[in-house]
Amino acid sequence: MVYPLNEDLKQMLESSKDSAKLDAMKRIVGLFPAVVKNVIKKLVYVYLMRYAEEQQDLALLSISTFQRALKDPNQLIRASALRVLSSIRVPIIVPIMMLAIKEASSDLSPYVRKNAAHAIQKLFSLDPEQKEMLIEVIEKLLKDRSTLVAGSVVMAFEEVCPDRIDLIHKNYRKLCNLLVDVEEWGQVVIIHMLTRYARTQFISPWKVDEVVDEYNESNFYESDEEQKEKDQKMKTTYTMDPDHRLLLRNTKPLLQSRNAAVVMAVAQLYWHLAPKSEAGIVSKSLVRLLRSNREVQYIVLQNIATMSIQRKGMFEPYLKSFYVRSTDPTMIKTLKLEILTNLANEANISTLLREFQTYVKSQDKQFAAATIQAIGRCATNITEVTDTCLNGLVCLLSNRDEIVVAESVVVIKKLLQTQPAHHGEIIKHMAKLLDNITVPVARASILWLIGEYCERVPKIAPDVLRKTAKSFTNEDDLVKLQILNLGAKLYLTNSKQTKLLTQYVLNLGKYDQSYDIRDRTRFIRQLIVPNEKSGALSKYAKKIFLAQKPAPLLESPFKDRDHFQLGTLSHTLNSRATGYLELSDWPEVAPDPSVRNVDVTESAKEWTGILGKPKKEKPTEKFYSESEEEEDESASTSSSGKCLESNLYFHCLENCILRTVWYIKIKKKIANEARTLFNLISVPTKTHELLHRMSGKGLAAHYHFSRQPGIFGDHMVPVQVTVTNTTDQKIENIHIGEKKLPPGMTMHEFNPIGNHILACEVAIMVQGIDFCDSTQTASFQLCTKDDHFSVNIQPPVGELLLPVTMSEKDFKKEQGMLTGMNETSATIVVAPQNSTRLVIVERVVKAANLGVVPSGQDNIHRFAAKTVHSGSLMLVTVELKESSTAQLVINTEKTVIGSVLLQELKPVLSQG
Amino acid sequence: MLTTFLSCPFSLSLKMIHSLFLINCSGDIFLEKHWKSVVSQSVCDYFFEAQEKAIDVENVPPVISTPHHYLISIYRDKIFFVSVIQTEVPPLFVIEFLHRVADTFQDYFGECSETAIKDNVVIVYELLEEMLDNGFPLATESNILKELIKPPTILRSVVNSITGSSNVGDTLPTGQLSNIPWRRAGVKYTNNEAYFDVIEEIDAIIDKSGSTVFAEIQGVIDSCIKLSGMPDLSLSFMNPRLLDDVSFHPCIRFKRWESERVLSFIPPDGNFRLISYRVSSQNLVAIPVYVKHMISFKENSSSGRFDVTVGPKQNMGKTVEGVVMTVHMPKAVLNMNLTATQGSYTFDPVTKVLSWDVGKITPQKLPNLKGIVNLQSGAPKPEENPSLNIQFKIQQLAISGLKVNRLDMYGEKYKPFKGVKYITKAGKFQVRT
Questions:
Q1: Helices in A90-183 by DSSP H: which ranges?
Q2: Where is the protein situated, by its record's location annotation (chain B) (predicted)?
Q3: In CA terms, which of A36, A81, A384, A889 is 20 to 30 Å from A322?
Q4: Are B363 and B315 in contact (CB under 8 A)?
């Protein structure tokens, strides 16, 4: 059955008639159900998508098949069905598509969710009316933790709602962290999006550099000390947002990608976002791309050209990589030449000029001409070599190739203009050339030069005019204009000899075919030849014609490209492409950075997403599913253990969180303070039960240590209590009753919840307890309007600490002072999968509230903290040894806490 | 914010690759594929216009702007792959993708030529459909594609035509779903083998006097891995510090490389490029050959002399072989009468390319090519002597001195057969005369 189909397709493809193709299409659609029944037949899909728009009725026949396939137990079939369904561009099925996308976006398989993200774009281009609904789906998918989905959903975001930056905030850190594992195409899209994002959210890291520059310039006006003060002030006020740093750090490894697009994306990110001192790391990778095929070279060289104008230093070490080979295509040659010229400075100019000499002789004359231009630019930019270059160019005037000579003349003209004082000889030489050169631009340039400096060559100038007047009618328009100019200038300076000649030329010009020349002639005549009608202007004729003209600037054609984001199509074309999104300027003041903080409630939502689903698919498929997801699952089960209950509780949490306004106010404050420490704080996900709903008569309570520092005072350990009402009645007036605290221990109560919490609702409260650096239990009563329940909070020793940031040096110094009695140690077994830095840090920091100390050695990991109450230092060292063991050392004055902590940390690294 | 919003009207909001046209050297569009609505072939006229302007194919600009579209093209194996784009997109993204398409054709059909594509047009459409979804790359890993769409073999096409089945794989690809998308599942071999080819290329520009203007070593490690199951390999070097700048296949764990300088990876099945690297230019590069040349054109006469000798230098006791010299002679050259002491030479009077296939260099008798160059009478003497492009090969030597230390395998029980081969070649090796 399929065999004739294949034959048909072949014939169809070879046929040029559309009607033949359509006939075949009809047959395919006829066959459709039979085909779809078995396995997905891609080819049929291809044609269905291609011709659905023209044959809408026929296409609709197939819809129900896809709808059925969307429910298939196999994730690949679900995904393919969605893919094809969303590719059928028939407006009637928009609602069906919308529904399918919504369902697929919460599918268990990340692959199906990825396809849902793709489908969003398709639906959007089919029916933009759906925008709002689609944004909701995008918002949901952005929260997805799968690396498969990330690239596709960001693509959809860029297409549907690139202006909704607010959707990114909460997902920013996750995207940064996932980036390395996303597939390469997704990486490009995400990096470009994050570049735009970062430019709206962080303040410029370049200010510091600029201040230093200013310092050098304004040195004269201010005393040194004042300056230093100011300098220091600026330097200390700028600290890079940790999120900004996170992005730079996580994109750096991608410079090693095999995909040129990824490397370029990272390079542009560093260019637009990194402090100027750091942007240099991208040059090596960009130079590496030059080994690639010609198209990649072309784009990369263009971008390097733009970069090298602004920051020469970046590419100077790679100067020789831009040397031209005779086998390079011309467009590559000219780009390399452009970069070489940009990189030229006093130190390397002599090497470069030697290299340029080879290029000038190239058989590729277009390239030789470009080289002459380049020499001209070097000569103006670097005054030391101006004379050398000029001499070299004059030598080229005797070249046999006319293009070379002409180009030299044009460049010499520009050069002479910058310093005409002592170049009478060269001008004379050029006047002689006029007899042989035929290229109009060159002739025009010579004539202009002679006219401009006619007083320096008083004998030659009139003679040149005589010769050109003879050939006037045969000249190019460009040359004619310059003859007129020459005549006018001579008339004004040396009218005795040239009056008649000029008038002759003007007469010729008057009857020229070109109106431009006729215009010019009339204009010049009015200006220079005094008659009764001529106005006041003719008095100033000399000033007008022989005014000092500013020397032309010899600039790179890439000069004006820097306002486009690098690596974009617009940059390549040097014009705004459709859909180009402008990179905004850095904000003066950074917007609230706490918007990126992800709090527990957010992750709770994610958990419900997973827990709320039916069981996983077949176990075989689990093998291939995303590892993150598996982690998620294990995390959520271990954390609550009571799956159903916490599920309910998280559901409630989501709805009611906003009710406690007080809490939110506090949260903001916390977030701001926590910001500076953000990357040191890892909030433990473990929650402890405070009150079981059975013993609490329907009131359940959990607590966990939120590790948010310093809300209630320095000695308090913050504890977040979550109260859930599991009954179907409201519970009123929750507050803390009688406290039974050990001596010295104090507790900051949460404000009583004056209002009530309704059935199935949740309230969150934060309180602080000063445990006096002991693991003793804090007992108190949790009261409602009618009841009171005794509850206990016992802190794990790891929560009695506050992380401390210190350098490795300081750490060693402190450690040296805390030896002997103050040191406890143990040898532990480390499971092999736990031996990487990342895992160790993650696990240790999860177990105890420790700060990570940067370590110079790969096998030693250091952590530091101080106790909350007394502020004694607590130094933890994990040193990996041979054969998967490790030495765990704790140095502290508080030996009791130290040894308890040691016991608690022991199992952390040995568990699998 | 509002302005960005207004500046992208909905009707144009179509991203990435819209359509693809394949065009041969004589300017025929022999294949077109549209991922969204159909774009008329006439859009290619802008491309042809640019092609005409560019004189030779090498100089056709890769990015062309037309009134309603942008054309981004690559030139591979005498075929232009012209893609139609409607909105802003990183050009390298498209270029890299198009090259990936050409690589895939090469991989499937053994060559990426017009005939191969036409012969396998059904597979080509299937591939293109899988590689892009709505203009955004979907499956570009060869391992996954091969599971989705079987590459053609003679046997399979016979079987297909009898049984009526198609090339579409009847198992569903699972690699796409895993977090190691480059490896297909359920790989089984009776002989488990892992081969690594360390290939180094010397890029150099040598000036007239024989001194090195610029030299650099570019290397790659190409692998052919046929191992069952899910092997986890780690490859270490004796001298990893030599590698200055490295780019990796996505399978390599970057962190391990950063911390231990070990390549640790779960490999794709079959042939793939593991890493490419550059040996830092600070190290002096040993140039294995030298060239003595005497090329001159006499003033006011229609002839010139050509005399070139190639010899070995610093080759560490290995033979330099596969030596080929190509020279683009100046336009004025009509013909060349040369004698080669070794190998044979050809001169194409149309393209003016002289090619001398030398073969192996034996130090006892250095290969020499000399004779008379005939110039167009009356034409001026060429300004510049042509530069000589040289190719060569040295077996069993990595010129940088890079050495593989060991290969370990984890995760599977069997003992694989391991092999490493070294080879040094000339890359862009040019001698100016």
A1: 94-105, 110-126, 131-142, 147-160, 166-169, 172-178
A2: Cytoplasmic vesicle membrane; Golgi apparatus
A3: A384
A4: no
Question: How far does the CA of residue B364 sit from the closest CA of chain A (Å)?
Answer: 32
Cβ neighbours of B137 in A, within 8 Å: 185
CA distances to A394, A501, B97, B402 from A464, in Å: 20, 11, 60, 68
Q: Please give the full DSSP string across A327-360, using - where no structure is assigned.
A: TS-HHHHHHHHHHHHHH--TTTHHHHHHHHHHHH
Residues B131-162 pLDDT 10s: 888 788 888 888 888 877 778 765 555 555 55
| Tens of pLDDT, residues A506-523 | 999 999 898 899 999 988
Structure tokens at A339: 């970069």
Q: Nearest Cα to B143, choosing from B260, B266, B50?
A: B266
CB contact B379 to A (< 8 Å) = no
Sign of the dihedral through C-alpha A402, A403, A404, A406: positive
The interface residues of chain B toward chain A in range 119-138, judged by CB-CB distance below 8 A, are: 121-122, 125-126, 129-130, 133-134, 136-138
A353 CA: distance to closest CA in chain B (Å): 13
Whether the CB-CB separation of B399 and B423 falls below 8 Å is answered with no
**CA distance to partner chain B, nearest, from residue A889 (Å):** 23
Residue A577 to residue B88, Cβ atoms within 8 A: yes
Helix axes A184-201, A242-251, angle to 10 degrees: 160
pTM over 0.90: no
Written as one letter, the residue type at A432 is: K
Rounded alpha-carbon distances, angstroms, from residue B80 to A680, A868, B22, B75, B77? 53, 69, 6, 5, 8
CB contact under 8 A, B88 and A569: yes
Give the chain B residue nearest A9 (alpha carbons).
B122
User: Token pair 């899910």 is at which residue?
Assistant: B230
Q: Are strands B136-137 and B243-248 parallel, antiparallel or unpaired?
A: unpaired
- Please give the Cα distance from A425 to B269 (Å, whole number): 73
What one-character DSSP code corresponds to residue B362?
A: B
- pLDDT 10s digits, B329-379: 888 888 889 999 999 999 998 888 999 999 998 888 889 999 999 888 877
Nearest to B287 by CA among B315, B310, B308, B309: B315
What would the pLDDT profile of A5-52 be if each residue is shown by its tens digit?
445 555 654 566 666 666 665 555 544 444 444 434 455 665 666 666
Q: Cβ separation of B92 and A567 shorter than 8 Å? A: yes
- CB–CB of A76 and B172 under 8 A? yes
What is the rounded CA–CA span in Å between residue B244 and residue B222?
A: 18
| Residue contacts between A and B (CB atoms, under 8 Å) | 268
Q: What is the dihedral of CA B173, B175, B177, B178, to 10 degrees?
A: 160
- Residues in chain B with CB shorter than 8 Å from the CB of A40 are 168
Distance from CA of B342 to the nearest CA of A (A): 26
What's the one-letter identity of residue A674?
Answer: A
Contacts of A531 (CB under 8 A, 6+ apart): none
Interface contact flag, B165 A2, Cβ < 8 Å:
yes
Closest CA to A432 of A452, A418, A407, A449: A449
Residue B70 has its nearest CB partner, among A118, A124, A577, at A577
